[in-house]
Amino acid sequence: MEEGKVVKHILLAKFKDGLSEEQIEEIIKGYASLVNLVPSMKAFRWGKDVSIENMHQGFTHVFESTFESTEGIAEYVTHADHVKYANMLLPQLEKVIVVDYKPTAVQL
């Protein structure tokens, strides 16, 4: 999949207080497993905020899923395994933002 030919699905999350690191790790493993369950989901990556700018507004985790098209994201959103996972995930979050975009390189 070349740049410009993919769509990124970004989820920024702040988990609710009281969840242990082990619980969060299990939640992340569940998210990662969707790449093997949802055919339109081509890749998954995640990370924790490491910025020194302190502009994270409380968001602590970033999740990035890669799709070949916006239609692929639509298939993902309605896929039974994603719906089941989302119904488990969302109550564990204090805050969430989701953004879908097509990466674009800047030609200099």
Automatic annotation (TrEMBL):
User: Which GO BP terms sit in this record?
Assistant: pollen tube adhesion
Q: Which residues form the Stress-response A/B barrel domain?
A: 7-101
SMART domains, A to Z: Dabb (SM00886)
Q: How does it assemble?
A: Homodimer.
State the protein's name. Answer: Stress-response A/B barrel domain-containing protein
